[in-house]
Design goal:
Blueprint lengths: L2 H6 L18 E2 L11 H8 L12 H11 L6 E5 H13 L5 E6 L3 H9 L3 E6 L8 H6 L4 E5 L11 H10 L3 E5 L21 E6 L11 E6 L1 H10 L7 H11 L2 H24 L3 E2 L6 E5 L4 H9 L3 E2 L1 E2 L9 E5 L3 H15 L1
Parallel strand pairs: 1-11, 3-4, 3-5, 5-6, 6-7
Antiparallel strand pairs: 2-8, 7-8, 9-10, 10-13, 12-13
Helix pairs in contact: 2-9, 3-9, 4-5, 4-8, 10-12
């Protein structure tokens, strides 16, 4: 880029590295997606009238269906182009330039990227050595927005309910709880609290348990006032007709989510045991992935594994996760293949 164009960029974009999409090919265990194919896709395509494609989409039916699923109304729901799109709406709606947003780290990297692009002053508060929230330090960050991923990505653990409740009770700003992995945890989520807190926003997605990362549909749950505010900045028709139809069909099929959950829970425990037999430290997980600390260099392990056609996530960019990798739970045959290659490499 020429120096002249660089000078035209907004300050928050200068020096920013673009997000790199995961290349296709091989076996991808790096993105925490669902290995099962959701039949909602084929059923939805049979229902779509081709004439709908000449009209702009509406979110109304999808919002109401999501609301029924969670025991709230459609007015408590807004839908975005993936959870990333909803996170962008939140920052655009509530953050003025240089206002503070707090994120406990390590966590989902898009929070920081989207916040900085939207001119927020991002305050990162490290988790404790056992990957728990330091509640007082998080509150001390005095964020207008605080984002908590529960269960957390990439550490995989669920923060205690009482710690998150304390943030909601004591925070002077909004508390956003990202529940992307809630379907895989054995603890209660915070959806039932939507009507009790004016400062609560919950994020959910169709990318994980529903197995529909490709349709790019995420949503937020909150008070009617907060949702109405988020809709002020939402781009019109931000989710297309086909994605809306597939998401609606997916909500009618609770059995698929249950099947996905049962697969993950069974394979997660087995994978943990097998890796521990190889001398790998595997942290407890309430998600569809495992965080593992290797006895060898993580970058070298990932390179060797990629050479065998499998991709996992190197998490060493976070200081407390040196030589850690994140491994998405796959189907039993895929997991067996991964374990076989891990044994080879660790030898």
């Amino acid at each position: 880029m020429s120096a002249e164009i660089e000078e035209l960029l907004r300050e928050t974009v200068q020096g920013l590295v673009a997000y790199k999409e995961t290349p296709r090919g091989g076996i991808d265990l790096s993105t925490n997606t669902n290995p099962l194919v959701n039949p909602a896709f084929e059923r939805a395509l049979k229902r779509i009238d081709a004439g709908e494609l000449s009209s702009y989409p509406t979110q109304k039916d999808l919002r109401e269906a999501i609301g029924r699923t969670h025991g709230v109304t459609g007015e408590n729901v807004t839908v975005g182009n993936g959870s990333d799109g909803v996170i962008d709406q939140i920052f655009k709606t509530f953050i003025n330039p240089r206002e503070r947003a707090v994120i406990p780290t390590p966590t989902f990297e898009m929070y920081g990227l989207i916040g900085r692009v939207n001119l927020a002053q991002m305050v990162e508060v490290p988790l404790t050595s056992d990957f728990q929230l330091d509640v007082d330090r998080v509150l001390g960050g005095d964020g207008k927005i605080t984002i908590v991923c529960r269960p957390n990505n990439p550490t995989g653990n669920v923060f205690p309910r009482e710690d998150v409740t304390e943030l909601l009770d004591r925070s002077r700003g909004l508390v956003v709880i990202d529940e992307a992995y809630a379907d895989f945890m054995g603890q209660e989520d915070f959806v039932s609290e939507v009507g009790d807190y004016d400062n609560l926003i919950i994020l959910r997605t169709f990318s994980k348990a529903h197995g529909l990362a490709g349709i790019r549909v995420g949503y937020a749950l909150g008070s009617e006032e907060i949702i109405a505010d988020l809709d002020r900045v939402r781009l019109p028709y931000n989710v297309n007709v086909i994605s809306v139809s597939i998401a609606l069909e997916a909500l009618r099929d609770a059995a698929f989510v249950d099947r996905s959950r049962r697969l993950v829970l069974a394979e997660r425990g087995r994978m943990k045991e097998e890796m521990e037999r190889l001398g790998v430290l595997v942290y407890p997980s309430d998600t569809n992935f495992l965080l593992a600390k290797l006895p060898i260099n993580a970058a070298e392990f990932c390179k060797a594994l990629l050479g065998r056609g499998i991709r996992v996530k190197d998490c060493s960019g976070w200081p407390m996760l040196r030589n850690c990798v994140r491994i998405t739970i796959g189907t039993p045959p895929v997991n067996e293949r991964f374990l076989a290659y891990m044994r080879e490499i660790l030898k």
